[in-house]
Amino acid sequence: MWNNYLSLLLGVALLAIAFVGPVGAQRTPTISYITQEQIKDIGGTVELECSVLYASDYSVHWIKTSNDRSDVVFLSTGSSLVLKDSRFSLRYDLSSSSYTLQIKDIQETDAGIYQCQVVLSVTNKITAEVPLNVRRPPIISDNSTQSLVVSEGQPAQMECYASGYPVPQITWRRENNAILPTGESDLKP
């Protein structure tokens, strides 16, 4: 009888391991969802969501880097916001393991790459990125050609420097509002 009891107990234990997995085994954390690229207006609001799986024993961070990766700002760790800026807030939803970073009153300086990171060790992390682009109205800089007087038949060179997001398209017009072809070096009246 004692052997039957041990056999039954061993069978139950093996069955439990088969369904649950080996004791102490842990699945590798993953980022199951990250918000796609965002393009927002100055003054608007954006929400960036990062959902993770099997990361309850690991630290999850939001980090912002500049587009050229030269500047890094640490925003949050776990469900706590580190950045002291009232425009930023962080929500953590335990049921979906989602970390949602919200930015209100978006400024041009908020543009960049937002990274959700699950830190596995000092040298190992899982990262997903969300680019945030901020629309800026087109601005023509002061060093553009303001006016130009040339003799008929002589070449003329005009320059226009503009910035904005998305990158503005530049067109030249005559006094009668007719559009000049771009990229041509020889324009006739």
From TrEMBL:
Q: List, for all copies, the residue spans of the domain called Ig-like.
A: 29-127, 137-189
Which SMART domains does its entry note? IG, IGc2, IGv
User: Which SUPFAM superfamilies does the record match to this protein?
Assistant: Immunoglobulin
Write down what this protein is called.
Ig-like domain-containing protein
Please give the organism. Anopheles atroparvus (European mosquito)
